[in-house]
Amino acid sequence: MLKTTILTREQLKDYAKKLAYLHEIGSFDDRFYGSILSDLRSDEHTLKRIYNVFSQALKKERLTLPSSTEWLLDNYYIISEQIQTIKSGLTRGFYKNLVKLTTDRSRAIRESIV
Q1: Which stretches of the chain drop beneath a pLDDT of 50?
Q2: Is the dihedral of CA 85, 87, 88, 90 positive or negative?
């Protein structure tokens, strides 16, 4: 169980410095760029399938759906718009200019949080 702690401004600044120190800047890797786009396409396809299944079930069977399912049906168009925005905005040039952290430091960062 995580213990909730409220940090002062100074403590938060110190913690931010500690986290920044744990980061190591990586370089552009075309494989990661491609995998991000591939994952996004896969997630988009999965969400669309789920949306279609739920909306068809709702139309055919007049089911009472959990609130999370209703939320997805009500907000699918917003999610879909955001995916399209990411796909059009995440160009190779834009991605190349983003700061990338090396993955081997992520464990140390997670452990510092817990």
Answers
A1: none
A2: positive
pTM of the predicted protein model? 0.65
> In whole angstroms, how far apart are CA 36 and each of 7, 62, 78, 92, 110?
34, 37, 20, 11, 22
Q: How far apart are CA 29 and CA 49, in angstroms?
A: 31
Cα–Cα distance for residue pair 3/11, rounded to 1 Å = 16
Token pair 């040039």 is found at: 93
Contact 109, 23 (CB under 8 A): yes
Give the model confidence (pLDDT) of 3-26 as tens digits. 778 889 999 999 888 887 877 788
C-alpha–C-alpha distance, residues 105 and 46, integer Å: 31
Sequence-distant (6+) residues with CB within 8 A of 15 are: 7
d(CA 23, CA 109) in angstroms, rounded, equals 8
Residues in the chain: 114
